[in-house]
Amino acid sequence: MINVxxxxxxxxxxxxxxxxAAYDLGNKEAAIVVRAGFILENTGDIDTTVDVWxxxxxxxxxxxKKKIFVPSKTTISVVENFQFASYRMPSGIxxxxxxxxxxxxxNSVMRESINVKLYFILSNPKSQWYxxxxxxxxxRYIIPKVKGLSDMQRLYRGITEAINAEKQLSYIPITNxxxxxxxxxxxxxxxxxxxxxxxREQPDGKETTxxxxxxxCAAIVMSFANMLGGNYIVNVCKIQGKILHFx
Length: 247
Description:
By secondary structure, the chain is of the alpha+beta class.
């Protein structure tokens, strides 16, 4: 297993079972920690101490080595934090299909690989995402639409243009994804929006269209922008003469 809690890599609402991690492009100096659990088996008659380390194919370099004692005729479960002092951080927002291989000084004990989907965002998530897990499905939707962007203003513009160009969305005057709880408090059903966007086909083969208004669009853009490191604190949008605030 890989735990991604040591950075900003939280997951929520994941629609597939692939291991996913997200990295802050601005964090290029600190070592990356990957928490991994695995099983070691020593079928021999002699106790042994082995070195275990990890190597990546594209992004991760080589991790530090962990010395692990494995008694003879024993199978043990191990959880360790592997530190990667070197890695290949891209220059802009993007995604990589990575393979991490765990190696052992005794090849008869262990050699195991895992595929990981890596996402790269501009900065630490802000506002509603600060201190909270970011969603793998949201990254899967938005990252390809803003791939390669490397500054915040272009990111804001890129997300806005991507939502405006979304063929599954059509405009109506009434909000579809935002619940107006009070004059200053609104709830945005982000998970429903993502679910609708991934439901690409109707049974008859025609693409599904979902209706949004300006309030929905503002909430959608703000949510994606803040997840990728933007800082839209409050959005103001006039709808039918009313001012709607997003916090």
